[in-house]
Design brief:
The complex is a heterodimer of chains A (about 170) and B (about 600). Chain A contains five helices and six strands; from the N terminus they run βαββαβαβαβα. Chain A is α/β, with parallel strands linked by helices. Mean pLDDT of chain B is about 85; it is low at about 1-5 and about 545-555. Chain B folds into five domains: about 15-120, Beta-Lactamase; about 180-275, 2-Layer Sandwich (Beta-Lactamase), CATH 3.30.450.20; about 295-465, Rossmann fold, CATH 3.40.50.300; about 465-545, Helicase, Ruva Protein, domain 3 (Orthogonal Bundle); about 555-600. The termini of chain B are far apart. Classes of the chains: A alpha/beta (about 170), B alpha+beta (about 600).
Chain lengths: ~170, ~600
């Protein structure tokens, strides 16, 4: 079976682990538990009738305490940028991490998701900011690890892009 | 699983295994020929739990953890022969074979030419570090939530403030549009707000007013502050107002209204109504009937009032001419009061019947010992009137010698006290009066012509009362009021017949005689109305003097009824009816037409 390494990137407490756990085990906990280092999980998806094993590298959230190691990113076939809609600063972190990923693994497929769609009224990331991300060529999904909204779609869409991936020129990003 | 001691194994195998067990690590050595990682010594228990019991002594990259595989295939400079510290993989967490998870960390190191891989299970130290990071991040999240809450509150407050500012701006715009003049006072009486119109009325800028205590900021007469203070103290009654004068180059008369601020009971809203125009009109209206202490609204008196205003504006010597009792001193006082000297003395001196020496001493003063009885130095009336006005009544009666001295004063603006040689400078305006015809006196040689020309620079000629009969009702009523006040009697009016008698009298003594007659009548009067019988006998019995053609309406009677009654009493004789009413025949006929009365 084809195995693809996928890294979960984003600021701390944006919901990377929650998205992975919702996807892999269909569970969710309101309790925040910070990730130290990397937690590796696996789950297979079907793309074009082919089973693809996604090896999900759930990296610790980046902040002033921990910077993402380039070595963790190496060998990734794609990555997911996670933002917390209720915290505008996580968008800036995602932008910085995307540049790090681009430098380290090149123009591999990636998808961004704005998590916590269940509390949309509290979002600080507004439509204008989302529009600007899309103008940069980003795929922006909305989702909620708490309710499961958009989670399956997130991983399947990325898996599909990885399977179908043709190299994307760097200057398009 | 039994490992095979490799090249790096200590000769004392039991010691080597004890070290590995104590450090709780698994050790692999990379074989040069096969590039396989071979287990060294005895692995700890957790290793078997992680890789499974079937795993051998060689690390199978195909079966091992994705993380470890990535780590091992990655470039490690230290294995390439470069010097440096051991390279750690960083912690990773993966499921173990028994359904749990395990957090491990790999280290690449080089011992001599040997490539060594250590795998450590992270235990309590790692958990403590994780707990610290967890707490730090939870605190950061809490602070973010707090900051967000503050931002929300700030945004809400800013929004409310903006709404409040908009409301305030709207209210201000409305206030300015309405032209409402208002001040707001705080609980200490300090002005916290002044509308544009309010500042305009006060003739002040916002900078000069805002923050100031109202009593100090507002340019008010001292006596005007008390009523405002009272209004502030009783602000619950909005019907109370007071009118005050705002001082300045252009004084304004302002009606003050004070209301309690509905939001703050201790604060007050002061509303200013500019009544200057009303005040000016009212004063002009009053001056139609009176001017200072002068009473009368006949054309002759109105001309006199204007003349007084005109001569008051200059500093020339004035000569007031008029029969005795026509109010010459009142005119002199009015000139003084309207002039720039009004705050200086007004001294009146009657020059009639005084000898040379007495008049000279009175006017110019004397030195002690200047004459018998001059026991002290004494200043004269000129010096007493310094800066003000000296009224010389009956100037036509002054002796020739005094005329000469007076001429010198007028020319040199200085006086010399009797008994002194040194003159003194004076600044006095002379207003003179006489009932004489001074021109005739000059012809007769009793008055110096040069003095006449000096004192008659401005002239005010007063008409005798008989030539302004229309002023008699007003004068009589005014005098009645004054005398009643002085005597304490309550007499409300003059009977029309009484007034008719007063108007038909010749009044050779002019207003002074009229006043005397009214005083007499007040003493005699027993009712609320002065009857003809109350008047002095010489007025009751005096022959009727033909009235002027000016029509004077009589008070308290319907005019048409009075005309009809007069015609009836005179049995249709229009001349007699006109006489009875005290008007001329021409006026009588004109009024008959205006009142639509058929005399037949």
């Amino acid at each position: 079976m084809m195995q693809k390494k996928v890294c979960m990137l984003g600021g701390f407490a944006v919901g990377k682990t929650s998205l992975v756990r919702r996807f892999v085990s269909n569970v969710f906990s309101d309790h925040y538990h910070t990730t130290i280092g990397v937690t590796v999980e696996k789950k297979s998806v079907t793309v074009d009738d082919r089973d693809v094993m996604l090896v999900l590298w759930d990296l610790y959230g980046e902040d002033e305490f921990q910077r993402v190691r380039d070595s963790y990113l190496r060998g990734s076939s794609g990555y997911i940028l996670v933002m917390d809609g209720t915290r505008r600063a996580t968008l800036d972190t995602a932008l910085a991490l995307q540049q790090t990923a681009l430098r380290t693994v090149g123009a591999v497929p990636f998808i961004s998701i704005i998590n916590k769609a269940d509390v949309r009224s509290e979002w600080e990331i507004d439509e204008r900011a989302i529009e600007q991300l899309r103008e940069r060529g980003w795929t922006v999904l909305f989702g909620s690890a708490k309710h499961g909204q958009g989670v399956e779609e997130l991983f399947v869409t990325l898996a599909t892009q990885i399977v179908h991936a043709a190299p994307i020129p760097r200057d398009c990003l | 699983m039994k490992s095979r001691p490799g090249n790096l194994a200590l000769h004392n195998e039991s010691l080597f295994n004890a070290v590995l067990s104590t450090l709780d690590i698994v050790m692999f050595e990379c074989e040069e020929d096969s590039a396989e990682f071979r287990l060294q010594g005895l692995p700890p228990e957790w290793w078997r739990q992680w890789v499974g019991p079937a795993n051998g002594t060689v690390l199978d990259l195909g079966q091992c953890s994705p993380f470890l595989r990535d780590y091992l295939v990655g470039a490690h400079p230290i294995w390439g022969g470069q010097l440096g510290a051991p390279e750690k993989s960083g912690p990773w967490t993966e499921p173990d074979r028994q359904g749990g998870t395990m957090t491990l960390e790999a280290t690449a190191l080089s011992i001599g030419s040997k490539k060594v891989l250590l795998i450590e299970r992270l235990g309590s130290g790692f958990e403590e570090m994780g707990a610290i990071v967890q707490r730090a991040r939870e605190r950061m999240l809490a602070e973010e939530r707090t900051a967000k809450s503050y931002r929300k509150t700030e945004t809400r407050l800013i929004s409310e403030l903006e709404a409040s500012e908009r409301t305030k701006d709207d209210a201000l715009a409305l206030l300015q549009h309405l032209g409402l003049a208002a001040l707001v006072l705080d609980e200490r009486g300090h002005i916290t707000f002044a509308s544009d119109r309010g500042l305009e009325i006060l003739g002040m800028t916002a900078e000069a007013v805002i923050g100031q205590e109202w009593e100090q900021a507002l340019p008010l007469h001292k006596q005007d502050r008390a009523p405002i203070r009272e209004l502030i103290d009783t602000a619950s009654d909005p019907r109370k107002t007071c009118v005050v004068c705002i001082e300045g180059p252009r004084p304004r008369w302002v009606e003050i209204e004070v209301r309690g601020d509905p939001r703050h009971p201790d604060r007050h809203i002061v509303i200013l109504h500019d009544r200057t125009e009303l005040h000016t009109l009212r004063r002009a209206l009053n001056e139609q009937a009176s001017f200072h202490d002068l009473v009368g609204k006949s054309p002759a008196m109105l001309r006199t009032y204007q003349l007084v205003r005109d001569v008051a504006q200059v500093d020339s010597t004035v000569l007031i001419e008029g029969e005795t009792g026509t109010g010459k001193e009142l005119i002199a006082r009015a000139i003084h009061s309207c002039s720039g000297r009004k705050h200086k003395p007004f001294i009146a001196a009657n020059c009639a019947g005084l000898t040379d020496s007495i008049l000279t001493s009175q006017l110019f003063g004397h030195k002690r010992g200047a004459f018998t009885g001059a026991v002290n130095d004494q200043q004269g009336l000129f010096e007493a009137a310094e800066g003000g006005t000296l009224f010389l009544d009956e100037i036509g009666d002054i002796p020739q010698q005094v005329q000469t001295a007076l001429l010198r004063v007028l020319q040199e603006k200085e006086i010399t006290r009797l008994g002194e040689a040194k003159p003194r400078k004076i600044d006095v305006r002379i207003v003179a009066a006489t009932h004489h015809n001074l021109s005739e006196d000059v012809v007769r040689g009793s008055f110096r012509a040069d003095l006449l020309y000096r004192i008659r620079i401005a002239r005010v000629q007063l008409s005798p009362l008989r030539e302004r009969r229309e002023d008699i009702p007003l004068l009589a009523q005014s005098l009645l009021g004054q005398i009643c006040t002085a005597t304490g009697k309550t007499i409300e009016r003059l009977n029309p017949d009484t007034l008719r008698l007063l108007m038909s009298h010749a009044w050779p003594g002019n207003v002074r005689e009229l006043k005397s007659a009214i005083e007499f009548a007040v003493i005699s009067c027993k009712t609320k109305e002065v009857l003809p019988i109350d008047l002095p006998p010489e007025i009751i019995s005096a022959p009727v003097v033909p009235s002027s053609s000016v029509w004077i309406p009589l008070p308290n009677r319907d005019e048409k009824s009075r005309f009809l009654a007069a015609l009836s009493d005179a049995k249709g004789n229009r001349t007699e009816a006109a006489r009875r009413l005290g008007v001329s025949r021409a006026t009588f006929y004109r009024r008959l037409v205006e009142l639509d009365i058929d005399p037949r």
